[in-house]
Amino acid sequence: MAKADKVRVNREIRSDTVRVVQPDGEHNVVDLDTALERAREHELDLVEIAPEADPPVCKIIDYGKYRYKQQKQEKRQRKRSKSMQMKELRFRPRTDDHDYEFKKNHARDFLENGNKVKAYVQFRGRDIIYKDQGMDLLRRLIEDLQDLARIDQAPQMENRRMTTILAPHKKKK
Fold first, then answer.
1. Hey, which end of the chain has fewer CB within 10 Å, N or C?
2. Bigger pLDDT: 77 or 102?
């Protein structure tokens, strides 16, 4: 349920007395029936703006326009907030140089697009004895991408995986 849907209008208001802000900016505390009468005189709605105040603050405005402005503002906020995704790269302890470069370039693209990168070395079977090679591989990746990324999580073992998380540097506006 959106915030605009939770707003009480006219007879939905539950308080006996309210602080009314009129269209000309004047405000005072009156009982609910008087406030509703003033709203009818202006041919507008009585909208509860601050229900948690004592007494609740209500404004005499056009409810349709109020909802429209609220929806526009919510849409603008959703547009501004960019969701960050986690992209994963999988390595093996003895990943070849060409494969490493290929995956490093993918990581670079992900970071440039503002996504986090979770790089991990998967140890299968007897590969677990090559933990040092896995650590070297992740450190090399961190060093190669240090111009674009910061370390969100240092390399660490999780079961049969060695994992690190890189996040893009914050861009200066």
1. C
2. 102
